[in-house]
Design brief:
The chain has 13 helices and twelve strands. It has about 325 residues and is α/β, with parallel strands linked by helices. It has three domains: about 55 residues, lambda repressor-like DNA-binding domains (434 Repressor (Amino-terminal Domain)); about 120 residues, Response regulator (Rossmann fold, 3-Layer(aba) Sandwich), CATH 3.40.50.2300; about 130 residues, Response regulator (Rossmann fold, 3-Layer(aba) Sandwich). Strands 2-1-3-4-5-11 form a six-stranded parallel sheet, with helices on both faces. A four-stranded parallel sheet has the order 7-6-8-9. Strands 10-12 form a two-stranded antiparallel sheet. α5 links the parallel β1 and β2. α1 crosses α2, α1 crosses α3 and α5 runs parallel beside α13. The longest helix is centred in the N-terminal third of the chain and has 16 residues. The radius of gyration is 25 Å and the shape is elongated.
């Protein structure tokens, strides 16, 4: 049996290209101080010989892992999946890998995962962290470089978020324009900053629209949560329902159908996020479309700036837009 062909080494590349080992190392590690023509010769030689740098050796030389961690509160949520997709694709284009950790909505686990993953990676992105503000402020300096998604502006880290307050205000205005004067809001996780933003929008709507009544119903963030509160929602007498997110709205739609309640003839229902399934519900769901993938891309852009020693954008806020579909109509007389 013939011996397997010997793999090319960095020594082979240096000898063939007529340069030193250190020059090859600098070129393969992306060091911009090497003369461009010389660097191109080294790269061409490496391709001809079939040489690629050993990832472990490369990380030891650079003092970097070429990996960043992303901590999310719930991997089952399609919105977080879309944010992760935006991060991972953007990171891959920069030669980085992404390590994902799910805190399962547990604050203690979230804090532990942030610290432990940071020790093993070059940086960490906290996606919609659930910890209290004082806990977050105390944690961020020790995680640097760190980027935060979906929280208020932070002194210690760049933040990328969406305008949840403004988008919910638009949904309220949409229902109000259809004649709905009694609404129910199915609240999400109390620790969620986006839930707090929604509550602010509701308070402002109550103040601005004197004949509008909004009832808050403790709920959750998934299908089961929306289904479980159907009877409570109907007991409020609300004609317009604002669900914390699309998953909750879908669970509610199913439970209302089981009870013979027609949407939108009897009640109107709106979601939030515009996950891929939202337009395929029966009826299609009116919702606020959050640019989740772009949130992820912008988060990576900020992280990459930190990793390369450039100045990141300190605070970026993206605007969702309302997608009006068949789950809302004029309030019944």
């Amino acid at each position: 049996m013939a011996d397997a062909p010997r793999k090319a080494t960095i020594t082979d590349v240096a000898r063939t290209a007529g340069v030193s080992l250190s020059t090859v190392s600098r070129v393969m590690n992306g060091n911009a101080t090497v003369d461009p023509q010389l660097a191109e010769r080294v790269r061409a030689t490496a391709v001809d010989l079939g040489y690629s740098a050993n990832p472990l050796a490369r990380s030891l030389v650079l003092g970097r892992t070429q990996t960043v961690a992303v901590v999310v509160p719930d991997l089952a949520n399609p919105t977080f999946q879309a944010i992760l997709r935006g991060i991972s694709r953007a990171a891959a284009s920069s030669g980085y890998h992404v390590l994902i950790a799910d805190s399962a909505e547990q604050v203690d686990e979230e804090r532990l995962l942030a610290v432990e993953t940071r020790r093993r990676t070059d940086g960490v992105i906290l996606c919609a962290p659930r910890m209290e503000q004082d806990q977050l402020e105390a944690l961020l300096p020790g995680l640097s470089p760190v980027v935060v998604v979906n929280r208020a502006r932070q002194d210690a880290a760049p933040v990328v978020t969406a305008d949840y307050r403004g988008a919910l205000a638009e949904l309220v205005e949409h229902l109000y324009s259809l004649g709905h004067r009694r609404l129910a809001f199915l609240a999400g996780v109390a620790r969620s900053a986006s839930n707090a933003a929604r509550l602010t929008a509701l308070a402002q709507a109550r103040s601005a629209l004197g004949d509008l009544e909004i009832v808050e119903v403790a709920c959750g963030v998934d299908f089961d949560s929306g289904s479980a509160v159907a009877d409570t929602v109907l007991a409020t007498g609300a004609t317009g329902i604002l669900a914390f997110n699309d998953l909750v709205a879908m669970g509610l739609l199913s439970a209302l159908a089981d009870r013979g309640v027609r949407v939108p003839e009897d009640v109107s229902v709106v979601g939030f996020d515009d996950i891929p399934f939202a337009r395929y519900t029966s009826p299609p769901l009116t919702t606020a479309a959050v640019p989740a993938a772009e949130l992820g891309e912008r988060a990576w852009r900020a992280m990459h700036a930190l990793l390369t020693g450039t100045e990141p954008e300190a605070f970026a806020i993206l605007a969702p837009h309302v997608a009006v579909r068949g789950s809302t109509s004029a309030a019944a007389s």
